């Protein structure tokens, strides 16, 4: 338990706290009436329990028709006892001590969820929240950027706050998030532009293609090298590990016998994609080819400089050795 509790008296959600909260949020003109005659908790649709030092969620089963619940700025450690709140649309659990996302399975109507400023290290256990539109999980302990991919299942998600997490320091953070969640309108309180979406999508596609290409190429390079080098210059390409990358050979050999690719051509809209894809693939190959040659030439230059320096050092040593021997012989003649 946090040392913070040494100076804070933890509370529980009891009948007195609930009754007081309901009375406080009633309009002044009917507050006295509510205090005198009471209120049916099933009629309450909104409940604010902020800043009450609540340690554990409990005793909310009476609010069967609740649509909005504020539990922010407490000391809650677990998300629990919310099973009966099946009509909940808005839930605020920000500024607590929650470490794990859990206990949300029955909240299938939830549209707005805030877990801002907690201790959460992984985005998980939210599979049933199909209606989610706004999600705030900034200022937690999220370190793995790939966790964002989990949010792709929420087709209605338009507003997302991840700011203040460790993975936000990654230079690819913004592009990665927008590429995997292209329907976002707001990210970290900022409007997502169409330009950002386009750039990020292209970069992610190229990154995935390059990874696929390198893996495939590595597994098949021995087969390529088995053939004889028939043209002038291929020996250099082989030494640079870029043979057969300066053209369409790699693409043709990968897709020549691909029957599944031929089937895809019959799907609507795929025809145009298949026409553009080969040239783009070849362009990536050529980029790899040029990069490989550049690195090879750099290595060759470094090796050449090394041997030149070695030769100069050997020559200098030989000359110095001859001089020493000559001086020795001259001294002995005297």
Automatic annotation (TrEMBL):
Superkingdom to which the source organism belongs: Eukaryota
Name of a matching Pfam family: LRR_9
InterPro entries to which the protein is assigned, alphabetical: Cilia_flagella_integrity, Leu-rich_rpt, LRR_dom_sf
SMART domains: LRR_SD22
SUPFAM superfamilies registered for this protein in UniProt: Outer arm dynein light chain 1 (SSF52075)
Localization (cell): Cytoplasm, Cytoskeleton, Flagellum axoneme
Predominant localisation class: cytoplasm
Keywords: Cell projection, Cilium, Coiled coil, Cytoplasm, Cytoskeleton, Flagellum, Leucine-rich repeat, Repeat
GO cellular-component term (any): cilium
Keyword rRNA processing: no
Family: Belongs to the DRC3 family.
Record-given protein name: Dynein regulatory complex subunit 3
Gene from which this protein is expressed: Drc3
């Amino acid at each position: 338990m946090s040392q913070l509790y040494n100076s804070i008296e933890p509370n529980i959600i009891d009948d007195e706290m609930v009754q007081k909260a309901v009375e406080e949020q009633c309009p002044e003109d009917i507050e006295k009436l509510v205090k005198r005659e009471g209120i049916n908790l099933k009629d309450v649709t909104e409940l604010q329990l902020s800043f009450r030092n609540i340690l554990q969620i409990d005793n909310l089963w009476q609010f069967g028709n609740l649509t909005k619940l504020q539990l922010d700025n407490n000391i809650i450690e677990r998300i629990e006892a919310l099973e009966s709140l099946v009509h909940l649309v808005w839930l605020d659990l920000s500024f607590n001590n929650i470490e794990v996302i859990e206990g949300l399975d029955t909240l299938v109507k939830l549209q707005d969820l805030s877990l801002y400023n907690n201790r959460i290290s992984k985005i998980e256990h939210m599979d049933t929240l199909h209606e989610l539109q706004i999600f705030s999980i900034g200022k937690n302990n999220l370190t793995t950027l790939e966790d964002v991919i989990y949010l792709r299942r929420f087709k209605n998600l338009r507003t997302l706050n991840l700011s203040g997490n460790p993975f936000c320091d990654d230079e690819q953070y913004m592009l990665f998030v927008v590429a995997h969640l292209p329907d976002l309108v707001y990210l970290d309180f900022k409007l997502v532009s169409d330009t950002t979406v386009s750039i990020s999508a292209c970069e992610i596609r190229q990154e995935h293609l390059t990874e696929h290409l390198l893996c495939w190429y590595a597994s098949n390079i021995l087969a390529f090298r088995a053939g004889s080098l028939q043209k002038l210059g291929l020996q250099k390409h082989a030494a640079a590990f870029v043979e057969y990358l300066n053209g369409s050979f790699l693409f043709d050999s990968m897709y020549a016998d691909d029957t599944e690719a031929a089937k895809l051509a019959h799907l609507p809209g795929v025809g145009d994609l298949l026409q553009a894809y080969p040239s783009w693939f070849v362009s990536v190959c050529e980029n790899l080819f040029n990069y490989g040659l550049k690195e090879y030439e750099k290595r060759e230059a470094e090796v050449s400089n090394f041997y030149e320096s070695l030769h100069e050092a050997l020559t200098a040593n030989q000359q110095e050795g001859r001089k020493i021997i000559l001086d020795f012989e001259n001294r002995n003649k005297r």
